[in-house]
């Protein structure tokens, strides 16, 4: 296996001429995938392999993910590709089927039990309240984009702990995609409240 999925990656001690790191600003498009393919087509210069690290791989656009499939399926023998993301659910299943999951240190976004308990109480209130009350509850939280994403991470943890909440998973994934696409935080969370 030459392609891996992980939540964090430390660059190895090899020559920087043999490492390509893709750091997205807003998204990763087909041009960056072509850059990866071109980089992997050449021989390593100072080490025995070429390494590609795609940080925030969940920001790969759909066309870019499709373009990357062939490279993941048949990477050159002297290469390693690392897709680094905290959100593997945003990658195509066909991409996920072509990579090996690597266990990494605890996700820094993981929350402590106290914070998770607070989120669970808020979720209980949201599920029990009528729509107008849900909107007021969410507005009272004064979410920023980062705290809203953290809330969604905690919601995902709760879903994994209690499968009766599984119906919320597609709504949580869609909300995360909207937030990552730079949609208005309040409107995105209001939309989540409406579809709970």
What do you see in this structure?
The protein is α/β, with parallel strands linked by helices and 196 residues long. The protein has two domains: 3-101, P-loop containing nucleotide triphosphate hydrolases (Rossmann fold, 3-Layer(aba) Sandwich), CATH 3.40.50.300; 113-195. The chain has eight helices and five strands; from the N terminus they run E-E-H-E-H-E-H-E-H-H-H-H-H. Helix 1 links the parallel strand 2 (19-22) and strand 3. The radius of gyration is 19 Å and the shape is elongated. Residues 105-111 have low confidence and may be disordered.
Give the arrangement of secondary structure elements.
Elements: E1 3-6, E2 19-22, H1 30-41, E3 50-55, H2 62-73, E4 79-84, H3 93-96, E5 100-101, H4 113-128, H5 131-140, H6 145-161, H7 169-180, H8 185-195
Parallel strand pairs: 1-4, 1-5, 2-3, 3-4
Helix pairs in contact: 1-2, 4-5, 4-6, 5-8, 6-7, 7-8
CATH topology of the largest domain: Rossmann fold
Sheet bearing the most strands, described? 5 strands, parallel
Q: Helix fraction?
A: 40-55%
Q: What is the 3D form?
A: elongated
CATH homologous superfamily annotation of the largest domain: P-loop containing nucleotide triphosphate hydrolases
Classify the secondary structure makeup into a structural class: alpha/beta
Order of strands in the sheet with most strands: 2-3-4-1-5
Low-confidence stretches: 105-111
SSE pattern, N- to C-terminal:
EEHEHEHEHHHHH
Number of domains: 2
Rounded mean pLDDT score? 84
Number of helices: 8
Radius of gyration: 19 Å
Number of strands: 5
Q: How far apart, in Å, are the first and last alpha carbons?
A: 40 Å
Proper CATH architecture of the largest domain? 3-Layer(aba) Sandwich
The CATH first-level class of the largest domain comes to Alpha Beta
- Percentage of residues in strands: 5-15%
């Amino acid at each position: 296996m030459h392609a891996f999925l992980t939540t964090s990656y430390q660059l190895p001690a090899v020559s920087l001429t043999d490492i390509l790191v893709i750091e997205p600003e807003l998204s990763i498009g087909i041009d960056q995938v072509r850059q990866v393919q071109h980089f992997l087509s050449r021989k390593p210069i100072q080490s025995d392999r070429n390494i590609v690290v795609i940080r925030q791989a969940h920001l790969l656009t759909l066309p870019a993910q499709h373009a990357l499939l062939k490279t993941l399926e048949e990477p050159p023998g002297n290469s390693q590709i690392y897709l680094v993301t905290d959100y593997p659910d945003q990658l195509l299943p066909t991409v996920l089927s072509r990579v090996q999951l690597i266990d990494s240190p605890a996700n820094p976004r993981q929350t402590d039990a106290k914070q998770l308990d607070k989120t669970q109480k808020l979720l209980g209130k949201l599920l029990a309240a009528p729509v107008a009350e849900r909107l007021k509850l969410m507005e009272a939280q004064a979410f920023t984009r980062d705290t809203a994403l953290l809330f969604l991470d905690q919601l995902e943890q709760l879903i994994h702990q209690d499968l009766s909440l599984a119906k919320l998973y597609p709504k949580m994934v869609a909300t995360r995609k909207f937030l990552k696409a730079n949609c208005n935080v309040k409107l995105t969370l209001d939309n989540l409240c409406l579809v709970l």
